[in-house]
Amino acid sequence: MRRNLFILVASAALFIQCKSDTGQAANGRLPSASAESSVAGALQTGKVVTITTADNVVIVGSLYASAAKAPAVLCLHQWRSDRSHFQALAASLVKQGYTVLAIDMRGHGESVKKKDGSAVAPDRNAIQDVRAAIAFLKGQESVDASRIAIVGASYGSSNAIMYAAGDPAVKAVALLSPGLNFFNVLPIEPAVSQYARGAMLAVASAEDLRSVEAIDKIKGIAKSDLTTKIYDNAGHGTDILEANVGLQDIIAQFLKKNL
Predict the structure, then answer these.
(1) Do 72 and 131 sit in the same domain of this protein?
(2) pLDDT digit of tens for each residue in the chain (259 aa)?
(3) Same domain for 142 and 203?
(4) Is 140 found in the same domain as 154?
(5) Are 71 and 156 contained in the same domain?
(6) Whether 43 and 140 share a structural domain
(7) Which residues lie closer than 8 Å to 148 by C-beta, 6 or more apart?
(8) How many domains does the chain have?
(9) Are 153 and 176 in contact (CB under 8 A)?
(10) Considering only CA atoms, which of 247, 214, 249, 213 is closest in space to residue 231?
(11) Residue 22 is part of which domain span?
(12) Domain co-membership, 16 together with 55
């Protein structure tokens, strides 16, 4: 009996000690979260924003706002994906002084309804989404509206360069796994030729043959300052960001040089 009582008391003491070791006070209350941890959480996830396009599609995005007036970066995901794949890049860039907006393009992620509540299907041509997102960024107090970059993946890269060709505020475009004419509705060659005032970064993985072919073509027609990079076995689009091959650092260096 005494032995059982001793084990019970010892177990209780060990439980209390474990709670204390993990940050819980002996009175059972957790310590309050600091302001610093709240800010860190915001940097990791961004602020959810909604933007209405000219044709009344409600675009949902995550805004990572710099504390001071800064260049802005818009991130566009690949087909059948969403903005979450840019979370790590966005959190890193905002710490370096950029304001970043990552959006779900129409029919993807949370951007699935119009203003009247009707459903929205995915559409390869999402230029209206890009236009609305750029207008939103230009209206932010934390943004220098004359210094904007777009990072696009796969069909997002097509929409990025096709928009950038007509907006002089877009000083830099990063194309992750570009294609010359995705789905036969997104021809980028005219836009690549037209985009002469800014800088362009084009990257792909060696086994992604169509994207490698697209970069070879871009080399021959680009009139802007062009940087290219081919990786090995890194996947397609935002997969390259998540492959630990250093692309995040390459993008940061590219933006620092050109914004």
Answers:
(1) yes
(2) 434 433 333 443 333 333 333 333 333 333 333 333 333 444 467 999 999 999 999 999 999 998 889 999 999 999 999 999 999 999 999 999 999 999 999 999 999 999 999 999 999 999 999 999 999 999 999 999 999 999 999 999 999 999 999 999 999 999 999 999 999 999 999 999 999 989 999 999 999 999 999 999 999 999 999 999 999 999 999 999 999 999 999 999 999 999 9
(3) yes
(4) yes
(5) yes
(6) yes
(7) 71, 72, 73, 74, 134, 137, 138, 167, 169, 170, 171, 259
(8) 2
(9) yes
(10) 247
(11) 1-31
(12) no
CB 173 within 8 A of CB 163: no
Residue 68 vs residues 41, 97, 154, 192: alpha-carbon distances, Å: 19, 8, 31, 32
From 191, 252, 248, 243, select the one nearest 222 (Cα to Cα): 191
Instruction: Using alpha carbons, select from 226, 259, 257, 243 the residue that is nearest to residue 89.
Output: 243
Q: Do 14 and 125 reside in the same domain of the chain? A: no
